[in-house]
Every structure is written in structure tokens, then in C-alpha cells.
């Protein structure tokens, strides 16, 4: 039996902090995305060249989706949700590179992302309704719904984390099993499937975050 | 020794039976979404986005079963 999917591989220690391989991969992805974005947006022109047109399609597509989901101007949420989506696509697909494990295949990375979404939902909710108005939303249909509403805040954060972790980790697990059992070329269709699953999971995570934020900033009757 | 055997069996049962319900449910919801898109192709954007969110919710139950199986196999609290 190989390495447990619930454990993490510690590469080195930075003082008292253990640095795992997922953290190093995340740093590499961050560096890649920041440098890539900086290089790509250094000279923006009114008449876009090929790269700028592609970036505009991606950014405008995400902004349109956010506006349709939250039914409001999506621009305040665009930096958070757009970064989340692009990071998740990169993180889920980079597991297909040889020698790289997807950082979302360890439990800690999805947990951190779900906590970011959890915190930002309340941040946007308080900013839209004020502290008291936002807290009053938890007792909204009737006061008796208060414990259930609070419970659903916690369980939906937990299920976001477990969904992302389970999908990406099980994909990597199946790939490792097929490589061990069947050899060199048979895993290729499965790897294509894994790339698709990674993009779909990134989409679902971002859409769910947008739905939660939209429900927090939306009118009181929204679910 | 029996604990190991029972854990392995329980993990296999959890994944196999836990996959039944979500598979049927996802099949039904995709069929309904196909039907809706065939009737109203202009609403396909909204329908497929709602479909994806719904599929994610349904799939969560199967993923929970997978997590239970993983806990039994790799992080069993009773295995000493």
C-alpha cells in the first residue's frame, strides 16, 4: 500500500513550519500566474493583439458569469473569483505534469480555499447589509430556522472542501493505480478525463462561491 | 486482523453502495436538463449552470462515501 492520500509529504522545515510539496507547488503556481499576468498586461492597447484578445475573452467571460449568478454588477467580486478560478484550473491540471502532484489533491489546500470563500461571503454580506442587517438574514423565514441556517454555513464550506479534494485526489489515485497495473499508454484517455474533471471542478467551486456571495449580498428572499 | 478485514469490506461497501444513489440521481438530472435544453435552446446557459451546481451537490454524497472509505483504510481510529 502506497502513501496515504490523507497524509502530506514534508519536504523541509522553515524554522518551526513544515513545508510540504503542495506548498512548494502552490508557490510555483503563484509565481507563474503573477509573472504571466504581469508580462501579459504590461502593454495593453486599444487594438488588442492575439494574447490580449485571449485574456480579454477569459476575463470578460468570468465577469459575465458572475454578473448572471449574483444578478448584480460583478466587478467587486471579479478579482477574488477570477483569481480563484484561474488558480484552481492551473492547480488541478498541473497534476498531469510528470513529477508534480496537484496541490488540491491534499486536504489542506481545498480547506484553505474553502475558508477564504467562507470569510469573503460574510465580508461581502456585512458590507452589503451592515452587521445587524446581515445577522438578521440568518433568522429570515422564521426564527426557528436560525440553527439550520448557521449549520448550513458550516456544512457547505466543509462540502466545498471535501468535493474538490475528493475529485482531484481520486483522479490522481486512479491514474497511479492504472499506471501500476497497465503500463505506459493506457492511462492517456484517463488523463484527458482528469483534465476535464479538473476544469469542471474549478468551475463548480467558483460558481458555488459566486452563488454563496450572491445569496449573501442579494435581497432577503434569495436562498 | 478481523478489524483489518472488516475495514476493507466496509470501505468497499461504502463506495459501491454510496455510488448507486448519486449515479441514478445524476442520470435523472442530466436527462431532465437535456429535455429542457431541447425544448428551450435559448435558455441553455442558465440550465447548464444550474445543472452543474446541482450535479456538484448530488456528487457530494458519493464523495462523502469515498472519504469514509479513505478514513477506514488509511486513518482508522480503532486500528491502534
Notes on the protein architecture:
- The complex is a heterodimer of chains A (about 220) and B (about 80).
- Chain A is mainly alpha-helical.
- Chain A has one domain (about 10-220).
- Chain A is built from 7 helices and 2 strands.
- Chain A has a two-stranded antiparallel sheet with strand order 1-2.
- Chain A starts with 9 loop residues before the first strand and ends in a 6-residue tail after the last helix.
- The model of chain A has no long low-confidence stretch (mean pLDDT about 85).
- Chain B has about 80 residues and is mostly helical.
- Chain B has helices spanning about 1-40, 45-75.
- In chain B, helix 1 runs antiparallel to helix 2.
- The longest helix of chain B has about 40 residues, at about 1-40.
- Chains A and B meet through helix 2, helix 6 and helix 7 of A and helix 2 of B.
Q: Give average pLDDT of chain B, whole number.
A: 88
Helical segment tally of chain B?
2
What's the rounded overall pLDDT mean of chain A? 86
| Low-confidence segments of chain B | none
Structural class by sheet pairing and helices of chain A? mainly alpha
> What's the gyration radius of chain B in Å?
18 Å
Compute the number of strand runs of chain B.
Answer: 0
Helical content of chain B stands at over 70%
Portion in beta strands of chain B: under 5%
Report the sheet with the most strands of chain B, covering strand number, pairing sense and barrel closure. Answer: none
How many structural domains does the protein architecture of chain A include? 1
Amino acid at each position: 500500500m502506497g502513501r496515504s492520500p490523507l497524509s502530506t509529504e514534508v519536504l523541509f522545515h522553515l524554522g518551526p513550519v513544515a513545508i510540504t510539496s503542495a506548498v512548494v507547488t502552490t508557490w510555483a503556481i503563484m509565481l507563474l500566474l503573477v509573472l504571466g499576468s504581469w508580462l501579459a498586461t504590461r502593454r495593453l492597447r486599444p487594438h488588442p493583439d492575439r494574447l490580449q484578445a485571449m485574456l480579454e475573452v477569459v476575463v470578460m467571460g468570468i465577469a459575465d458569469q458572475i454578473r448572471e449568478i449574483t444578478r448584480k454588477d460583478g466587478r467587486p467580486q471579479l478579482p477574488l473569483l477570477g483569481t480563484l478560478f484561474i488558480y484552481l484550473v492551473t492547480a488541478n491540471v498541473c497534476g498531469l505534469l510528470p513529477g508534480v502532484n496537484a496541490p488540491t489533491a491534499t486536504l489542506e489546500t481545498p480547506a484553505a480555499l474553502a475558508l477564504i470563500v467562507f470569510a469573503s461571503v460574510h465580508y461581502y454580506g456585512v458590507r452589503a447589509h451592515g452587521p445587524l442587517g446581515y445577522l438578521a438574514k440568518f433568522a429570515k423565514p422564521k426564527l426557528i430556522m436560525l440553527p439550520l441556517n448557521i449549520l448550513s454555513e458550516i456544512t457547505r464550506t466543509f462540502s466545498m472542501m471535501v468535493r474538490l479534494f475528493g475529485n482531484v485526489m481520486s483522479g490522481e489515485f486512479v491514474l497511479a493505480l492504472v499506471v501500476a497495473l497497465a503500463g505506459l499508454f493506457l492511462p492517456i484517455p484517463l488523463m484527458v478525463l482528469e483534465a476535464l474533471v479538473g476544469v469542471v471542478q474549478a468551475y463548480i467551486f467558483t460558481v458555488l462561491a459566486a452563488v454563496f456571495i450572491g445569496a449573501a449580498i442579494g435581497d432577503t428572499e434569495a436562498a | 486482523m478481523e478489524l483489518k478485514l472488516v475495514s476493507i469490506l466496509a470501505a468497499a461497501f461504502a463506495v459501491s453502495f454510496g455510488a448507486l444513489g448519486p449515479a441514478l440521481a445524476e442520470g435523472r438530472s442530466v436527462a431532465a436538463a437535456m429535455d429542457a435544453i431541447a425544448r428551450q435552446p435559448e435558455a441553455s446557459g442558465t440550465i447548464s449552470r444550474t445543472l452543474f451546481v446541482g450535479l456538484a451537490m448530488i456528487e457530494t454524497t458519493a464523495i462523502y462515501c469515498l472519504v469514509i472509505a479513505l478514513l477506514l483504510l488509511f486513518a482508522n481510529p480503532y486500528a491502534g
